[in-house]
Specification:
CATH class: Alpha Beta
Number of helices: 12
Distance between the termini: 63 Å
CATH architecture: 4-Layer Sandwich
Structural class: alpha/beta
Order of helices and strands: HEEEHEHEHHEEEEEHEHHHEHHEEH
Helix content: 25-40%
Strand order of the largest sheet: 6-5-4-3-2-1-14
Shape: globular
Number of domains: 1
Radius of gyration: 23 Å
Length: about 325
């Protein structure tokens, strides 16, 4: 590459001609600084696909990303990972809430096998995965890890405890993901928030929970009556009002001002709107400051938890 042109002659020429001239400079090199911590980014959430990346950085360059659901195809998932500054080389495992096609795409199987990504799912959903077209290579490669109702470790440093929730026939799984940097609660596609879920998520640092529909928009929508009836039921989805109530209950049971971040998932494009969600959560101004709305097409920013936060909370608990 040629040496950059001297700056002074360019400025002199600009003064004489009145034209704006530019200096040829080599592009700045992007340097990724290694910082231990826990981060979470929703790559996209809605009826067209759901995928959230949890990154636990312990050592530089490791496979430190866990995907919560994988409801996009290869191209979109790859693009979304790259936009978030990571790639398939960082992904160690996928943790599935359930097997609706907007939460797991069987067409992603080849990519998962190619990169040796393990798929963790409740044994409730094992037969459904086995019957899905094109998923046999996951079993052949030994990449399917079913679990029961106890704790599991989907990747080093992350312990997941589960809650079984009502949704359609097979139900869905809510997760509390615990690390040395903090805890994340994750629940989507649930018809209601039972007391066991509130208790399970009490104290989490980041709460990811669905806020799917506005009730009036749902009732007045052009969708089939049976679809609306299903979504409004205790085995369907959470409304904005139900999500708000659940978040308040979890906050009231949480010490140290947690959850410090609330990520609202799976907003319906037909039966909800960002302003509808915001108006509900703005009833509590302090709570609304913590809220991040997800979008079907756009990823969220990375939400970061640092080691000092957990240490400070532990010191406060001991002092109390």
């Amino acid at each position: 590459m040629a040496d950059p042109k001297p700056l002074q002659p360019l400025l002199f020429a600009q003064a004489l001609t009145g034209q704006r001239l530019t200096v040829d400079r080599p592009p700045a090199q992007k340097i990724r600084e290694y910082r231990p911590g826990l981060s979470i980014c929703c790559l996209g959430s809605g009826s067209g696909g759901n995928c959230t990346a949890l990154r636990l950085t312990e050592t530089d360059g490791s496979r430190d990303v866990l995907l919560l659901d994988a409801g996009f195809g290869k191209r979109r998932t790859t693009t979304k990972l790259n936009e978030a500054g990571v790639g398939w080389r960082h992904v160690r495992a996928v943790l599935l809430s359930h097997l609706d096609r907007d939460h797991f795409k069987p067409a992603l199987t080849r990519t998962l096998v190619e990169h040796g990504v393990t798929v963790h799912l409740h044994h409730w959903h094992l037969d459904e995965l086995a019957q899905a077209r094109g998923t046999q290579p996951l079993f052949d490669a030994g990449l399917v890890e079913p679990f029961g109702d106890g704790a599991l470790m989907p990747m080093p440093g992350v312990t997941a405890t589960t809650t079984r929730l009502q949704h359609d026939m097979q139900g869905t799984i809510g997760y509390r993901l615990s690390t040395r940097f903090g805890d994340v609660g994750f629940a989507t596609d649930l018809g209601h928030a039972p007391r066991k879920l509130i208790d399970h998520f009490a104290g989490v640092d980041v709460l990811c929970i669905e806020s799917n529909y506005d009730e009036k928009m749902t009732i007045n929508s052009s969708r089939p009556v049976w679809v609306n009836r299903r979504n409004l039921s205790d085995s369907g989805h959470l409304s904005n009002e139900q999500a708000y109530e659940a978040v308040q209950q979890i906050r009231d049971k949480s010490p140290h001002g947690n959850p410090r971040h609330v990520v609202l998932l799976h907003r319906s494009q037909q039966c909800n709107h960002p302003m509808k969600v915001k108006r509900v959560f703005e009833r509590d101004p302090e709570l609304s400051k913590r809220v991040t709305l997800t979008d079907q097409r756009k990823r969220t920013r990375w939400i970061n938890l640092k080691p000092m936060h957990r240490m400070q909370r532990e010191q406060m608990t001991l002092a109390g």
